[in-house]
């Protein structure tokens, strides 16, 4: 991790005079997609920001834009969270710069798809390093100071994949299930301290990562949510201290029903979400209907 830059705007008060969480907002994976829009959402609420991502030029350009548009202070922190020790190096760098993180946004994540047994083990372990290990480390590193101050917010970006196994996305979906579980557990542990933890669980979102995935190919563009809409919902839920935020009515229906239906049907729905699984979904529904129609005894 190299040293970051700093873009400084003029001091400000809370938007609309509302009470704000003290400290800076640290956003990982801030160079594009949902992460970039989350940075914009917090900046529009007059929060100072630390933008962290691998692509230094992208976060520096975003920093300049946020300063010009919202008159906030913005620091940039180039970092590769797939490298062991990167979260610790980030925490040390920010502490050394006198930056107090009041809101932690763990957005950085990677996607790996294909049959689990045929996939690259290195790619799968890299995914876990970013999606699980780095997120866990950053949460652990910044949470104690928040609880000591008596205020803070943690926003962990999960996915609706957290609610069901998804064939061809086995490791990704499992990593997001971890994120959701960790966030809910930590949220309960810090209840009443002034600190809250929120899991943002978007569905199909129009990002470069999603457009490059076969997951989005069979889905009409009208079913995609925009990164801006997802980020606005997540930012608002985080500041309100909500435990789980699932943007979009269709996504709410999918995630709300998952715990109530048989596991075989949940797996079939997961397969259908990744394309080519609609036949399995139909078969699971037929099997469920057949069981319900059999005489008992």
Q: What is the topological layout?
A:
Blueprint: E1 6-7, E2 24-28, H1 33-44, E3 49-53, H2 56-70, E4 74-78, H3 86-96, E5 101-106, H4 121-149, E6 152-157, H5 170-189, E7 195-200, H6 208-211, H7 227-240, E8 244-245, H8 249-257, H9 263-273, H10 278-293
Parallel strand pairs: 2-3, 2-5, 3-4, 5-6, 6-7, 7-8
Antiparallel strand pairs: 1-4
Question: What this model shows, in words?
Answer:
Strands 1-4-3-2-5-6-7-8 form an 8-stranded mixed sheet, sandwiched between helices. The longest helix has 29 residues, at 121-149. It has 297 residues and is α/β, with parallel strands linked by helices. The model is unreliable at 8-18 and 292-297 (pLDDT under 50). The chain has helices spanning 33-44, 56-70, 86-96, 121-149, 170-189, 208-211, 227-240, 249-257, 263-273, 278-293; strands at residues 6-7, 24-28, 49-53, 74-78, 101-106, 152-157, 195-200, 244-245. It starts with 5 loop residues before the first strand and ends with a helix. It has 10 helices and 8 strands. Helix content is 47%, strand content 12%. Helix 4 (121-149) links the parallel strand 5 (101-106) and strand 6 (152-157). It has 2 domains: 6-258, NAD(P)-binding Rossmann-like Domain (Rossmann fold); 261-292. Helix 1 (33-44) runs parallel beside helix 2 (56-70), helix 1 packs across helix 7 and helix 9 packs antiparallel against helix 10 (278-293).
């Amino acid at each position: 991790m190299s040293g970051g830059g700093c873009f400084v705007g003029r001091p400000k008060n809370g938007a609309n005079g509302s009470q704000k969480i003290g400290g800076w907002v640290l956003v990982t994976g801030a160079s594009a997609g949902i992460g970039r829009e989350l940075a914009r959402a917090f900046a529009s609420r007059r929060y100072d920001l630390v933008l962290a991502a691998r692509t230094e030029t992208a976060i520096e350009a975003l920093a300049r834009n946020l300063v010009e548009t919202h008159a906030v202070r913005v620091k940039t922190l180039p970092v590769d969270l797939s490298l062991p020790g990167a979260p610790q190096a980030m925490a040390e760098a920010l502490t050394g710069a006198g930056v107090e993180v009041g809101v932690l946004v763990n957005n950085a994540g990677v996607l790996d798809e294909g049959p689990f047994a045929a996939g690259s083990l290195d790619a799968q372990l890299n995914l876990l390093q970013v999606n699980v290990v780095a997120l866990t480390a950053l949460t652990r590193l910044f949470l104690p100071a928040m609880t000591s101050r008596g205020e803070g917010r943690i926003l962990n970006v999960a996915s609706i994949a957290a609610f069901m196994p998804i064939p061809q996305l086995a490791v990704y979906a499992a990593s997001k299930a971890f994120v959701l579980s960790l966030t809910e557990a930590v949220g309960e542990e810090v209840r009443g301290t002034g600190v809250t933890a929120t899991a943002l669980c978007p569905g199909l979102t129009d990002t470069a990562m999603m457009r490059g995935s076969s997951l989005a190919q069979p889905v009409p563009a009208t079913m995609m949510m925009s990164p801006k809409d997802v980020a606005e919902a997540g930012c608002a839920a985080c500041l309100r201290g909500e435990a789980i935020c699932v943007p979009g009515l269709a996504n709410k229906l999918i995630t709300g029903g998952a715990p109530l239906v048989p596991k075989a049907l949940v797996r079939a729905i997961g397969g259908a979400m990744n394309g080519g699984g609609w036949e399995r979904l139909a078969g699971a529904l037929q099997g469920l209907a057949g069981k319900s129609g059999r005489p008992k005894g």
